[in-house]
Amino acid sequence: MSTFRYAPSQILVHWLAAALIVFLLVTGTFVLADLPNSADKVGSLRVHMILGALAGVLVVARVWLRRRRPQPPAVVAERWARLGHMGLNVLVLLLVVSGAALALQSGVADAVFAGAALPESLEGWTLRKVHGLLTRLLMALIAVHVLAALYHQWIVRDGLLLRMRPGKPRS
Ligand code: HEM
Fold first, then answer.
1. Whose CA is nearest to atom 11 of ligand 1?
2. Which sequence spans correspond to the domains of the chain?
3. CA–CA separation, 46 vs 13, rounded Å?
4. How many helices (H) and strands (E) does the chain have?
5. What is the pTM of this model?
6. In 3D, which of 155, 157, 163, 145 has the Cα closest to residue 73?
7. How many CB atoms lie within 10 A of CB 166?
8. Higher-pLDDT residue of 26, 71
9. Mean pLDDT, to the nearest integer, of 54-64?
10. Distance of CA 138 to the CA centre of its chain
11. Lowest-confidence region among 1-5, 16-20, 97-101, 115-119
12. In the predicted model, what is the mean pLDDT of residues 8-27?
């Protein structure tokens, strides 16, 4: 079993990004999507957009850190793992781009940052559908990512999850 541990900065960015993305997926799906576009929604949209942009920054930081810090030893099915991680990063970045484009084109950004009224509905917007579809793809890939981590931990027993464990390394 490998005793490799990611750098503390990588561990911090990983769990921060994970918490933020799960928060955005849950609140976006169960709160934001169902709220009528009244003035009361502006605050929730503002939080969603700022945290969404932050999630994008964290993903870029993750990729940067991964290249600069020591590389972990390869695991079983390393190629699939790499592909899965790349998929997660690309999906989050596409969500940021589609969300920002939707907000700018529909007038949501004007309502959130310049006091204009919200557009009546976002239903007809293709970018809204694209953003929603990307969130479903991301949910599916996150489920695969979590299952793969648990498979490594409990079936392959290569200590993979411990690489990303917060706290002091065990001696
Ligand atoms: C990791 C980044 C992001 C995630 C995970 C995320 C997630 C979500 C989810 C789950 C929904 C509801 C989709 C549905 O149920 O159909 C949503 C809607 C939306 N998101 Fe995001 N989002 C992200 C980034 C952004 C960014 C950066 C912006 C804008 C700058 C943005 C703007 C919007 C808008 C305008 C809506 C539509 C809300 C409505 O229906 O009224 N999102 N997002």
1. 28
2. 8-164
3. 23
4. 5, 0
5. 0.94
6. 163
7. 9
8. 26
9. 98
10. 8
11. 1-5
12. 97
Q: Which string of DSSP letters, residue by residue, matches 103-143? A: HHHHTHHHHHHH-PPPPS--TT-HHHHHHHHHHHHHHHHHH
CA of 148 to the centre of ligand 1 (A): 26
Residue in 37, 95, 108, 121 to alter for ligand 1 test, most ligand atoms within 8 A of Cβ: 95
Whole-angstrom distance, CA of residue 5 vs CA of residue 169: 8
For the stretch 132-137, contacts whose Cβ atoms lie closer than 8 Å and that sit 24 or more positions apart, written own/partner, are 132/33, 134/91, 134/94, 134/95, 134/98, 135/25, 135/28, 135/29, 135/95, 137/91
- Res 171 pLDDT > 60: no
Terminal alpha carbon distance of the chain: 14
Give the residue, out of 90, 105, 131, with the most ligand 1 atoms within 8 A of its beta carbon, to mutate for a pocket test.
131
Q: Is the CB of 134 under 6 A from ligand 1?
A: no
In one-letter notation, the amino acid at residue 2 is S
In this structure, the number of other CB atoms found within 10 A of the CB of residue 90 comes to 15
Centre of ligand 1 to C-alpha 139, Å, is: 13
109 CB within 6 A, ligand 1? no
